């Protein structure tokens, strides 16, 4: 989805939910009536007219007994959107381990003569999505501290840990400028601690007067992007910041009355990373005489500086809470590299699919790791089967903690659910992965019922023509949080939970410039 549509969706996404007043309790209880009431209520929720032309798949099971509490077309294939990350993240933890770290290293094969390094300098990456400009600066500082002031040869960027296929299969070409569809490389950089690799934050602010050019800045400061500023200061902010297709030229148009930021992808993250290191070397008094080129680091190269990322157990938090597409794709290629020696999508996705099938997901097709592809396919039944099986993993608790938590305002706790289901029994209870594409929404995870019974669920809605019906997901999740097997036999019908969040097309986390 284009950023202009994302911004128009913000107000609706941030809106809360209104819960009907509680019904007075009845006396006699019928355990079977509780499940029957749940079925009745979920059927009513899914009878929403917005789903009339659409496809809806839902499955709810008890984790205590394994009983199926509700099913609607749960064995059919749906586009999962970011629910695909449930498979990718679990496969990554199993394959790489929670202690996996990415490395970025500066090496050489030349000889040091006084303060000169006679030979080439190599920058070798393994896909670290957490590399900031400050980290490249720290590498450069270590090179300078080693006594090197001049490199007589070239700066060679080694991104051969992955292949050179930058964009995923089936990704839309007009998504390329936006941070959620950044290019994948073994050498990259992120602008801040959300860790969106392969992007730069372009900020605009009002200029010196009405009709005057706006002020533009970048984070990190870099000459890798060329800015064409056509925007002017105005009475409203209606601005478009867009990298032109196939180039590193960013065109800014429209009017600006307040500060505004956009996360913009770069064309060729390898060159971007190398440019950050070269600039940092210069700041630390290290001059590289030769050009920047690409190549593989020789086996006999010696290390001058090395940086290790945070472990995967920590990276899971921004990855899953904020639904970071690029983390998913980097992990896919990393799995391929570890298992088959090939840092490719095909090798990595084979690992993910094999993991899924080994854990009961018999019907699955993965074309990427993030769910950005509309050709990805999985069933609600498969997702519930996976989520059930994961509870037996020794690493489950740390993985489970990475799921967004409904209604928790802390961005790194609530994540993409932080503005949803507030003031309901689902708040602080539902832990689930969201998913959003135009015409696709999904929510799958865990919830504890009113009786303390652990439940697992998957909701997938596809091919609707309305605004996003995420309120239907929320209503189902809240109803599960209220579920009791000891339902009073004469309890009145539960009134619908109404959500104001009916206009949004994308996850809150995709609305980068805004706080939601």
Automatic annotation (TrEMBL):
Q: Where is the signal peptide?
A: 1-28
Query: Which Gene3D superfamilies does its entry note?
Result: D-Ala-D-Ala carboxypeptidase C, peptidase S13, DD-peptidase/beta-lactamase superfamily
Q: Which UniProt keywords apply?
A: Carboxypeptidase, Hydrolase, Protease, Signal
Q: Name one GO biological process term.
A: peptidoglycan metabolic process
- What InterPro entries does this protein map onto? Beta-lactam/transpept-like (IPR012338), Peptidase_S13 (IPR000667)
A Pfam family that the UniProt record links to this protein: Peptidase_S13
Top-level taxonomic group? Bacteria
Q: What is this protein called?
A: D-alanyl-D-alanine carboxypeptidase / D-alanyl-D-alanine-endopeptidase (Penicillin-binding protein 4)
The species this protein belongs to is: Thermostaphylospora chromogena
